[in-house]
Amino acid sequence: MERIIVRSERIYEGKVFRLMKETVILENGVTTDMEIIRHPGAAAIVPILDDERFILIRQYRHAVGCFMWEIPAGTVNQNETPIMCAQRELTEETGYSSDRCHKLSEIIPVPGYSNEHIDLYIATNLTASAQNLNVDEVIKIHTVRLSDALAMIYAGEIQDGKTICGLLLAMNWLSTR
What is the CATH number of domain 42-175? Predict the structure, then answer.
């Protein structure tokens, strides 16, 4: 027996996600209430310059009350594919564009309470264009060498899950091409 959703109630609907309360009968027969964030999906991209330096952003994240090291990322808009989202976010957040993007993987960052999927890409052959931040984005751009990015992960300076996954997958991708 698979899980059975007995009841589903929308608690909140925001700009990006919906918060649902669902009564579920689990495979073991237990009935329980669960709060689930339903998310349309996201995409993130690891931009790499020709000299193999990564472009990282420092973005203010109000939920944690500080600036975080991240790779460009955003929510997939309606009628937009994940790769289109990743390329849009690359340009908006960094001021670079790329005609060479390769999918690295897909992650589910918080499966305990959200169905969000994040498609991860790498971008090479970068071309400078114009940064186009949203009004609510406070972002600073930095370039980081591979070895420094890895050291930042191990030192706990980079804590964002999608960024850690993206950088490690990109490092592996670079080593195998």
Answer: 3.90.79.10
Q: Does residue 46 register a pLDDT over 90?
A: yes
Contact 122, 104 (CB under 8 A): yes
**Half-sphere exposure of 76 toward its Cβ, with a 13 Å CA cutoff?**
19
pLDDT of the residue at 1:
66
Q: Would you list the domain boundaries of the chain? A: 4-38, 42-175
Q: Is 133 helix (H, G, I), strand (E, B) or coil?
A: coil
Mean predicted lDDT score pLDDT of the chain? 95
Any bridge partners for residue 119, and if so which? 43, 106
Taking residue 86's Cβ as centre, other Cβ atoms within 10 Å add up to 30
What's the pTM value of the predicted model, to 2 decimals? 0.94
3-state secondary structure of 161: helix
